[in-house]
Structure formats: C-alpha cells, structure tokens
Amino acid sequence: MLNMKKKLIAAVMLSMMTVLSPMAGSAQAAEGSSLQAAQTQEQLLPFRSAKIDHNITRIKDMTGDMIYLVEGKDKAALIDTGIGVGSLKTYVEKLTNKPLVVILTHGHVDHASGTAEFAEVYMSGKDKELFKEHTAFASRTGYIGGTNPQWAATVNTSDYRAEDNADRFKDLKAGMTFDLGGVHLDIYDVPGHTQGMKAVLLRENRALITGDGANMFTFLFGKETLGLSSYEKSLRKLQQETAGKYDKVYCSHGSGDLTVDYLARLIEDCQQIKAGKDDKVPFEFMGQKANIAYEIGPDHNRLDGGIGNIVYAPERVNE
Ligand SMILES: [Zn+2]
Ligand SMILES: [Zn+2]
C-alpha cells in the first residue's frame, strides 16, 4: 500500500513536471509569485480567468491547470475542473448564471478533482479507475506540494473539495454533441495520454480543445497511457475527423494556445521517434526508463526550435 502510494505520488510528480515544463523559467516564477501575493491579500481565491473568445473563458486553477467555460444561449459547459481546491462552482457562478454541464477531458488529478460540486458530469468510463486513484486527497496534496510547496502549506484541509464517485458520472463518448443553444460541442476520441482521453470541438467557435491529449509536452508514459504507435493512430484519426473544422487549438497547460497545425507536428514527432531519429534524452524514474523525444534547454523549450515534445516509453514505441 505504501509502495503504491509512493508510486502514485511519484507518477503525479512526473506528470506534473512534464506538463508544467513548458511554463518553467521566469514566466512561471512570475506567475507563481503574483499568485502567492494574491493569496496573502485575499485568503484563498485559487482561480483566475480571462476571456479568450466572446463566449469562452479560460480559467486557471492554483497550479496553472486550465479549465474552459463555454457559454451558449441556454446552457454553459465547464470543460475540466482542475485540482479541486476552493469552490470552482462559486467562482463560475460569478461568470455565468446558465445551467452547467461538466465535461472531463480525462481522469487525471489536475483536471478531474473538482467534480463533487457539480450535478451533471460526463467522463469516459475508461478513465473511471484512474479517476479514483488520481482524485484522492493524497494525489492532490502530492500534486500541489510538488508544484509549489509554499503554496501547499497555505491550503487547509477544508479547502479541498470532497472526493467524488465516478459511478454517478455519465459516460462521455465520441460522436456525442452538447447543444448549449447556438453553440455545439462535438466530442472526439484521442486515446494515448489516457485510455479515455477526449477532445472537444467548439463547432461555431472553430476551436479544438485537445486538453492533455495533444499538449506542448505530451506525457505518454505510465500504465494509463497507450504505446507510441497507437497514440500516433489516435492523432491521425482525430486529424482526419476534424480536418477543416477549426482555426484554433487550445490545450490545458503552458500558454494554453497551440499552433493550428499542432496535430500534424505531433504526428511528425511520432514518425521521427519510430524511425529512431529523435534525440532520445534519457529519463529515469522509479526504476523505469523513458525518453524525452527532443532535447530541451534550461527554459524547457526545444533546442532545435521545434514545437511539441513527447515523453514516451521506448519499449512501447511499436505498441
Ligand atoms: Zn493528464
Ligand atoms: Zn494535465
């Protein structure tokens, strides 16, 4: 049990490190320090937000994980719920009074931990077990502690939203459409980062939310992930299904904005890895070996100037 717990925390730390890497450096430090200053002044207000389109608000939680609020004429959708510290519901009710539906892109700790406050939640059934493990208090405290130990010390137990039971969730499946009133959200599969990973196309906004499914530092390492070849197939399928339907790509970490050709770039990365032409930067964790595809500098950007990186298990490249 202890070993399992240790492993889980370690996995969380690894996940966090990889996903946060693109924001490392001065920008992240600046963001962190301003967040801490805000905390000192206003007690616990662990959300910040900015409008990125007339009906889309990007909300960041205390660890920088991104949540998207999308509004139609009749309803609003919350895509992901962050780390589950502080009341996201209260925060969102200040932004909209429309009835809310929650759509989880996947079951990881930094996306799915704030569901307990919401009545209607959709998530892929394939991520149920992962959800249970990842949204437990121990995972959340481990994740926050790893992100910012000083901040973690200011969080009280009462600030954590309750643990939730995924059995009450509705199954999120590819092909589903959420009609918010003049605004349609179309659901697509993109398994790889997790088995149940979904992408959301905001049809009228012509924007694709890839979550962690296609990220700046896509994490493809751990028991919940697919092998690299299967991931490449997922990307190709998503690319084909959504071709011509979007002009913007939003993800869940870093700046949150990806290039419009990002799926193609990641597919190219997969091909380079399969051909053995990537940098294969060794990465060892808990006795398991992984590779970072492209060498990064101190600012965590790719040394070759390219955009996009994958951390993958070398023994699972052909899987
Ligand atoms: Zn994730
Ligand atoms: Zn994430």
TrEMBL record:
Any Pfam family: Lactamase_B
InterPro entries: Metallo-B-lactamas, NDM-1-like, RibonucZ/Hydroxyglut_hydro
The UniProt record lists the keyword Cytoplasm: no
Domain spans labelled Metallo-beta-lactamase: 64-253
Record bears the keyword Aminoacyl-tRNA synthetase: no
Record keywords: Plasmid, Signal
First and last residue of the signal peptide: 1-29
PANTHER family noted in UniProt: METALLO BETA-LACTAMASE SUPERFAMILY LIPOPROTEIN, METALLO-BETA-LACTAMASE DOMAIN-CONTAINING
Full protein name: Putative beta-lactamase-like protein
